[in-house]
Specification:
Blueprint lengths: L21 H6 L1 H20 L1 H8 L11 H9 L3 H4 L25 H13 L7 H4 L3 H8 L3 H9 L24
Helix pairs in contact: 2-9, 3-4, 6-8
Length: 180
């Protein structure tokens, strides 16, 4: 049973990230840019063709995901009050947030990294957590998030307006919004 979607608690939450070896980035910047261009181009295509994406990714298609095309099509296309509120009142808590159940956005907001690190410091976990006391969310966001290549790729593909989740007034910055 679905109790709540992540995107309904954390506005425009990060779902996946691209990680590249720092040495590769430094030694092969042209290759790095081409990889990022391909990722941004693919994300635009996925946003524009969710039904076809479901067909390609499903077990009957390319078998990239172990689920049926019907299931993936529902995941990619159905995110509305009528579908999810008849059995689960308020299953979609923020219908005014411009989100879908799945959305592909290439920009790695440093604010999300800062937020995750801040929350990790508050979490109750087993094991040695002393290392968390030495981590600065601001320093880690600067160290871990390089937006150089993705900004260039987004601009090459038509700019931030190609992605519905990016605020065009301030495309490279945002405030993380959590609502439980």
């Amino acid at each position: 049973m679905i109790l709540r979607f992540t995107g309904d608690i954390w506005q425009n939450h990060p779902c996946c990230v691209v990680v590249m070896n720092e040495q590769l980035i430094k030694e092969r910047p042209i290759f790095t840019q081409k990889v990022m261009n391909a990722i941004v181009r693919a994300q635009i295509w996925l946003n524009d063709h969710p039904e076809k994406a479901a067909s390609i990714l499903c077990k009957e298609g390319g078998n990239y995901l172990p689920v049926s095309e019907r299931t993936l099509a529902r995941v990619f296309l159905k995110y509305d009050q009528a579908t999810y509120s008849h059995n689960l009142p308020k299953a979609i808590r923020h219908p005014h947030w411009p989100i879908g159940r799945i959305g592909f956005q290439p920009y790695p907001f440093p604010s999300a990294t800062r937020f995750i690190i801040q929350e990790m410091k508050k979490a109750i976990m087993e094991g040695d957590q002393d290392f968390l006391n030495t981590i600065s969310p601001e320093v880690m966001a600067q160290d871990l998030v390089d937006t150089t290549f993705v900004k260039k790729a987004i601009n090459l593909m038509g700019g931030p307006g190609r992605f519905r989740e990016i605020d065009l007034q301030s495309p490279w910055e945002r405030q993380e919004v959590i609502s439980l």
